[in-house]
Amino acid sequence: MNAWMVRTSVALMGAGMSALCAAPAAAQSGGNTHLVVIAGVSGEPRIAESWTGLSMALWTAATTRFGIPASHVTLLAEDSTRDPAHVAGRSTKATVERILGALARSLTAEDRLVVVLFAHGSALTGSTTVNLPGPDMSDADFRRVLAPATTPMVAFIHTGSASGDFAAALAGPRRIVITATKSAREQNETLFPGYFVRALTTEAGDTDKDGRVSLLEAFTYATHEVEQVFTQGNRLPSEHAQLADGADGGRAREFFLASAGGASVAATPASAALLRERAEVQASVDALRARKTDMSEEAYQRALEPLMVRLAEASRALRALGGGTKP
Amino acid sequence: MSAPFSVLSTRAIVTLISCSIVPLWLRAQAAPPANTTAVALYARGDYAEAIRTAEAALAANPSSGENAAVLVRALTDLGHLDDVAHRADALRPLSATALPIAYALLGLGRLDDADGALRLAERGPDSLRARVERARLQRGRGAIDSATSSLRRVAALAVLVTPTTSATDLGAMAYANRLLGREEPARLRDALRLYDAAIARDTRRHDLRAELGAMFLEKFNYVDARRTLDAALAANPREPRALLATARLDAAEGRRPRGDPLARLLALDPAHPEGRAFAARKLIDAERYADAEAEARRGLVHDSAAPAPWVAIAAARYLAGDSVGYRDAIARVHKRLVRSASAEVEIAEVAARVRLYREAARVARAGVARDPRDARALALLGINALRLGDVDTARAVLTRAFALDPFDVWVKNTLDLLDTFTGYATLRTEHFTLVMEKGDAEVLALYAGPLAEEAYESLSARYGYRPPAPVRAEFFRSHADFSVRAVGLSGLGALGVAFGSVIALDTPPARDRGEFHWGAVLWHEFAHVITLGMTNNRVPRWVSEGLSVYEERRARPAWGGGITPTLVAAYKGGRLHPPSSLNDGFVHPRYGEEVVLSYALAAYVFEMLEDRKGAAGLRALLNGYRDGYGTTQLMVRTYGLAPAQLDSTFDAWLRAKFAREFAAVELRSTVSGSGDTSVEAGGPLRAALVDAARAQQAKQWDQVIASATRAVALFPAHADGGSGYHYLIAAHTALGDRAKATQALQRIAMLNESAVDENIALAGMLTAAHDSAGALAALERAAWITPFDAALQTQLSNVAAARGANAVAIRARRAVVALAPADRAGAFFKLAQAYVAARDTVAARREVLRALDLAPNFEAAQELLLALRSPGRVP
After folding, report:
1. What is residue A31's predicted lDDT score, i.e. its pLDDT?
2. Of A198, B162, B392, B581, which has the highest C-beta tally within 10 A?
3. How many C-beta atoms lie closer than 10 Å to residue B192's C-beta?
4. Which residues of B touch A302 (CB under 8 A)?
5. Are the C-beta atoms of B244 and B276 separated by less than 8 Å?
6. Which of B841, B848, B853 is most worth mutating to test chain A (most A CB atoms within 10 A of its CB)?
7. Contacts of B849 in chain A (CB under 8 A)
8. What is the pLDDT of residues B607-644, one digit of tens each?
């Protein structure tokens, strides 16, 4: 989907459209997406294997499903010799600082930078660090390296143990920070990364069924699945993920690695009418939802069904016009 | 209360200054006696030698109060009470003997004489203790207020304690506080402090240690009770009070007694009333009521009206259904213990132990009527009300009990548990009220509701008895909560409990994955509802448990355990009771595994009995228990089998039925570090499995297959970890023979009720072999074991949907929805699809709208909605 078409859709849908529908358009407003995946010191072959798999899953999804050029995807790993075709280098502090520093200085306001860390964290020296081959990198190091990136949107995702303090350290007006733990004291191996990557790279995380997965959806999915593991095992959770974007999840909701799904519809009077129809229905749905708690489920569904039928028919008609129907 | 008490206190202090304080100051400790003095001999339990030494000393110096006191105490501890009474006149002039003589007279039931002796003792060195004992005597006679006043006066002296106050006086003040603590729990802390001071003051006062240990035991502090009593018995292994308290502690903790403290107590004094009463209670637990009465009567030698044996006799008669005899016995107790609920407390406890919860509640209520401030009576009323499903009464009564005795951990735990009930959902089926944690209810009800109803219909028809509805079934995801529900404390090993029409059990999250099958437990407990209900709770434990396990086996092939190498080994090795005394295997197990093995064996007894007379025989048996007959009579009447015949017939039947297994296994006992023995299976089966293990280590797969095949042939039902099947799976997998590995896995999955992971693995192998029907069956078995596994339910729903097993697919997809997946819209949509497949368009529409409510632009759901509105277009 090209950016113009999205902007057109927004204009047609009008102000009454819910944030759910309007948000992706704003998020995909051009520029380039850069993805940097950093896998630190694993400590054992099982974890190394896991991080390699997760890194590759992200690389594959980024370069295929998300449409990010391979040149914009950088994988750094503990052992860069294992897969030289994909791994750009060893995940040393120097390399990380060089690559992130260069991106932070060069990206424009339209661009987006996504940093994903698969690494053990620790808080032994007074500051929170991630374990990299050679010297570790602290939250302050990352803050310093990324400091020049004041205008591009930066998503920083630390999926490892003791990651919680990174949220406060890296927070900023154009930042989304996700950590697998709520503090540096949660130091057990985390379950979060597997579920987070699954959410991003499969349909599992697409909970609103709009064909794409936002960072908020991926975060919510991973958090939920981690909770389920602990609940079903009757165990006290040892990790509590957190998301900080300064907007109660609003920025993360609008942040997609993927471009908007499906083909686009031409801006014709017919499609405009259909999009207007959908927007109206959506507004009615929003109004109905506001009254949901006062209604029985049966009554709610009775009121909802005609609206959903109208929405479905409009979507079907839009598809018939040869374009995507995703908002 | 506070004003009169203040006046009394002031008055008491004046009195103290005039008569008690001075002795307190004067009674400084004498120099420790040599090891050979009567005092030292008595302190270490050498009573006979203490008596000889004291008598010799008295012959030399008739005014030696210390030796006289030791003589009387030693004679009393040995039960020579008449001897003491004979010598009383000669010894009484010595002030130190007054209290010990009073104890002997109390033991003889000569209460007025004892009162006189105590009055005398009040003027001597034991004055404080004598006052406390007199107060106790008054209390027993119903003079509660004056007794309480006396105790308070003694307790008030604690403020005047000095470093020279004697251990005897400190102990007396401690005891006064302990008795007052019954209604004023804060005083128990004072009692503890004073006991500690008394024991520190005179380390030879093992009697005070025993008293302190008993206080800990009374207040459920088993750890400190054990420590204190062990210390007392380490110093004096024959300290009678410590022996009695230790026997009680063992019973409270469910521990097999080490060193048999009760036997040691009765060896000292064969007519010890509390000792015989306690022994009688153990027989009552074993449901041997006539033996219990005979045992209790041995405790009436010293005092024909001694309350403890009469309480035990009353309990035995009550449980035996002898109402006239019961009334006579309880009246005797009431005559001695006016206004006391102690008999009712005891009887309620034993009634509950033999599952007569309604009776326990009734007796406890009578106890509360006699003494409304008896915390234990209130607690028993509350606990048994809860067992009967009356939650509101339970909460109200337990709250009262807790206010009187905040140390009752059972009450506190139960109140805490009741507080959590706000987080439980209550669901109703035709015959059941299902109480489940809200988070579990939607999933669990999918399985528990239909299974409970199936059990109801199946077992009601079989036994000709329909339990009154609703039966209340409580499901706990926390094993600790279940344990509190069952026994008031955490740590219970059982998985379920039935109180009559109330069942409680663990749910899968309460235990490790694959540890048990909750459905089998539900079935088992409901079988108890039948057997308890049919017999008015008068079915012996071994019968009820045996039938429950037997019914599990009849319900599903893998349930109920079946024959195991350990069971055969234990039986062949004589480590299990025969049917005629199998109840002892439940109530007085001799080693750790005996209870579990007794369950399994008992089930076979009933299989044999059904072979002989069908279900009608079982019904006749249970009806006979209802009518008050005992097992011996019923076995003769119903099956023509006297106890010896029952045992020999069963033995022959079992050996014939499992001839192959009996040939494969021999007993192999090992003794653990704690001295407990464990039962292990040796013999040819073990040899084959050892060979298989050795060959597996060497990767000699053909040899593994040969040995494992031999093991399977020797004992086909053995499918637990390390069975021949497990070796076969490893060997065939290593050799790439998936078909044979699958066969072996299939056997485990079919034989082991909780083999969840084996069933999931089997499903994978069968799917790969294009056996979707087999895969579906395996996934179904796994989902029944652990319905909360979202991935498993998803897999099951997919396989079921693909095979057109619509009901299973719907249930699995409802389970997925209930498990609150991250992709809820997707889960609703798939459920809608399952309803479409089952041609339930109404439900399909409901679910697809739920999906669209969450994800309005969900294209596939939109299309399904449109299709559902266009007849003929439904996919």
Report:
1. 81
2. A198
3. 20
4. none
5. no
6. B853
7. 301, 304-305, 308
8. 999 999 999 999 999 999 999 888 999 999 999 999 99
The DSSP secondary-structure symbol of A214 reads: B
Give CA–CA dist B788/A214, Å, rounded.
28
* A83 conformational bin, left if phi > 0, alpha if psi -120 to 50, beta if neither: beta
> Higher confidence at residue B21 or residue B375?
B375
Q: Do B858 and A209 touch (CB under 8 A)?
A: yes
State how far residue A208 is from chain B, nearest Cα, in angstroms: 4
pLDDT at A30: 65
Query: Quick one: what percent of chain A has pLDDT higher than 70?
Result: 86
Partners of residue B858 in chain A, C-beta under 8 Å: 208-209
H or E element in which residue B497 lies: strand B496-498
Mean per-residue pLDDT for B729-742? 96
CATH number for the segment(s) A29-253? 3.40.50.1460
Query: In angstroms, rounded to a whole number, what is the distance separating the alpha carbons of residues B330 and B347?
Result: 10
For residue range B506-518, list pLDDT tens digits in order.
Answer: 998 888 888 899 9
Best mutation target, B476, B862, B863, B864, to test chain A (most A CBs within 10 A): B862
Beta bridge partners of residue B473, listed in sequence order = B434, B503
Residues of A in contact with B865 (CB under 8 A): 305, 308-309, 312
* Contact residues, chain A to chain B, C-beta under 8 Å: 21, 199, 204-210, 220-221, 224-225, 228, 231-234, 282, 285, 289, 301, 304-305, 308-309, 311-313, 315-316, 325-327
Question: Measured between CB atoms, which of A205, A209, A308 is closest to B865?
Answer: A308
Domain boundaries, chain A: 1-18+263-327, 29-253
Cα separation, B613 vs B624, whole angstroms? 15
- Those residues whose C-beta lies under 8 Å from the C-beta of residue A93, and which sit 6 or more positions away, are A132, A134, A135, A136, A137, A141
Instruction: List the helix and strand counts (H, then E) for chain A.
Output: 11, 10
pLDDT band with cut points at 50, 70 and 90 for residue B64: confident
Nearest chain B CA: its distance from A300 CA (Å): 10
A205 to chain B nearest CA, in Å?
7
In B92-141, which residue ranges form alpha helices assigned H by DSSP?
98-107, 111-121, 127-140
Q: How far apart are CA A37 and CA A72, in angstroms?
A: 11
Domain ranges of chain B: 409-534, 561-666
Q: Which residues of A touch B509 (CB under 8 A)?
A: 231-234
Residue B117 identity (one-letter amino acid): A
pTM exceeding 0.90: no
Q: How far apart are CA B600 and CA B689, in angstroms?
A: 23
pLDDT digits (tens, 9 = 90+) for B759-810: 999 999 999 999 999 999 999 999 999 999 999 999 999 999 999 999 999 9
CA-to-CA distance for B546 and B452, rounded, in angstroms?
A: 20
Distance CA A151, CA A135 (A): 29
* Interchain contact, A207 vs B866, CB within 8 Å: no
Residues of B in contact with A325 (CB under 8 A): 857, 859
User: Average pLDDT of chain A?
Assistant: 85
Distance from the first to the final alpha carbon of chain B = 81
Distance from CA of B848 to the nearest CA of A (A): 10
- Give the residue-averaged pLDDT of B553-576: 93
**If pLDDT is split at 50, 70 and 90, which confidence band does B673 have?**
low
Question: Distance between CA atoms of A90 and A130, rounded to whole angstroms?
Answer: 15
Which residues in chain B have Cβ-Cβ distances shorter than 8 Å to A324? Answer: none
Q: Name the fold adopted by B409-534.
A: Glutaredoxin (3.40.30)
- The string of pLDDT tens digits covering residues A149-200 is 999 999 999 999 999 999 999 999 999 999 999 998 899 999 999 999 999 9
